[in-house]
């Protein structure tokens, strides 16, 4: 399949600037792969499609306040710094994106905070992901991380043009987020409320958790027509024994295993045994899933609506079938579903 197969017209007004009023009252499109039927529901109706013993796999990564604003030495120019990845905790080295990038050279110093108590020096600007900064800070490592949190903002996606608001801190985070490390939320999980999780639990649905720290590579544009030439950025992934047992036991008993989000699906498919069961995992994955692809672990998935030509749309097309997915997306545009991070959801059965 080619990049052009994943293009469609997406009106700008369908990009969600704000989350739905209540987490579980976003709209839900239900797509049945066997029959091609498409239903229109609310997210909380999800419970009707699952039975006792079914498993939902959640990504418990936690978004950290990765967007900082500093000033360049001498000129005082305002520079946005987006923290991507910690390279070395002892030396306080980070891979970052800077904007505007053309103004930043090796050796430049950036000052953060009104009291300029945090300083960073650019030590490399040749990495594929942007720049490498060394932060200069006198306190302990814990104090340094605390300082980053104080100065940082919730890293809302670039398509959201408004300023970050206080509610974003809570709403751009799943309610089951535990392990800090993501620079973008695993957005399918944003729709789960405490109340809905409780109802699912009472019905007998089991939960397994994986940790995949979402990086910006997930959203990098694909710039090659031949998809086999696209390289995904690596993201850190952990799958423990408990989750492996929960998933494999459900599969053995022919219960449903539902991947909550593309990050979970990629995580699960990154650690498959020769018997097509789940293995434990600790490391990095750069798995890129696009059609045709045979999935081994999950047999249904929850996902948001993705933008044209994105790797996320390619993955859901591989799972649902390309023609059915493009039909569903056409319907979503017609019915004015909201797209992207704060948008509505889809359940693919």
Description of the molecule:
With 349 residues, the protein is an alpha/beta fold. It folds into two domains: 3-63 and 169-348, QueA-like (3-Layer(aba) Sandwich), CATH 3.40.1780.10; 67-151, Thrombin, subunit H, CATH 2.40.10. Helix 6 crosses helix 7 (322-334). The chain is globular, with a radius of gyration of 21 Å. The protein has helices spanning 141-151, 166-171, 194-203, 241-252, 262-269, 311-320, 322-334; strands at residues 27-31, 38-42, 55-59, 61-63, 67-72, 78-88, 93-99, 109-112, 118-124, 131-136, 179-182, 206-212, 235-239, 257-260, 281-285, 300-304, 345-348. A hairpin with a 6-residue loop joins strand 9 (118-124) and strand 10.
Provide a brief overview of the structure:
GO terms for molecular function: S-adenosylmethionine:tRNA ribosyltransferase-isomerase activity. The model has no long low-confidence stretch (mean pLDDT 93).
